[in-house]
Amino acid sequence: MQNRNGQDVLDSSAELMRKDGFVIMADFCSEELIKKLGDTAIQRLKDLRETLGDKEIGIGSSAGYKEICLRSRGRWDALISPKEFGYEPENLPWYPLMQEMLGEDLDFGMSGIISSEPNTPEQKWHIDSPHEGAELLPVHHIQVLIAINDIPVEMGPTEFARGSHILSNHINKTKLPMEQMVYQADGTSPETLVGGTEYAVPEAVQNDITAGTCIAFDDRVLHRGGQNKSSKNRHVIYFTYTKKGYNLSTHWESDASVFD
Predict the structure, then answer these.
(1) Is 149 within 8 Å of 39 (Cβ atoms)?
(2) What are 214's strand-pairing partners?
(3) pLDDT tens per residue across span 117-161
(4) How far apart are alpha carbons 29 and 109 in whole angstroms?
(5) Which domains does the chain have, with CATH numbers?
(6) What is the pTM assigned to this prediction?
(7) Helix/strand/coil (H, E, C) string of 40-82?
């Protein structure tokens, strides 16, 4: 990122991450990169779906398998290692931003593909991991989403509640329990996040996304995958990074293998 777009872009992206909880970097990846990531991921997802066959699978990572799960109805998540993608995590263009936010000695988390089928409903608002203290601490986990095709709003790109990574602190800022926010419970929304407090309702942001765009977001920001109203599958590649030594089991909770 620093070499591709300059230190000023790195600094401004980090500033937006800290303020809004997410940053959208339009047309950030080369056509070669998104083609290789996309071709690899779509084939891997196809192979896993064929292996899954008629095996039972529920909603959520704990009800799925360690290779593939359903995040919500019609929304598939398949793990794919950087080695399978053919890239080292530190050689990807968004890595300097990860170092800026998480430290030079950050850890790689996981990578894969999220695929939403046509007519997939929108997710419930949620965060992906809880806060670690009553005071706002620096980000501990970042997800990077890469669009391998154009994703108009009709296809349901991820929607974010701007600045909600600060307000989602279940320890001292919101009355919503941590479990309700992490596990996509009814009743979680930007409005209920600040209910009974003096804070303003955070703005919901959902934009058309062009192929090659990267979206990096703080794991604590309130977000949801949108409804896919189109007739096509919506594919997004993801890579995640954490501060050194951070680990949380809620991201992938199953020990069962689809190959058993």
Answers:
(1) no
(2) 25, 146
(3) 999 999 999 999 999 999 999 999 999 999 999 999 999 999 999
(4) 20
(5) 2-244 (2.60.120.620)
(6) 0.93
(7) HHHHHHHHHHHHHCCCCCCECHHHCCCCEEEEECCEEEEECCH
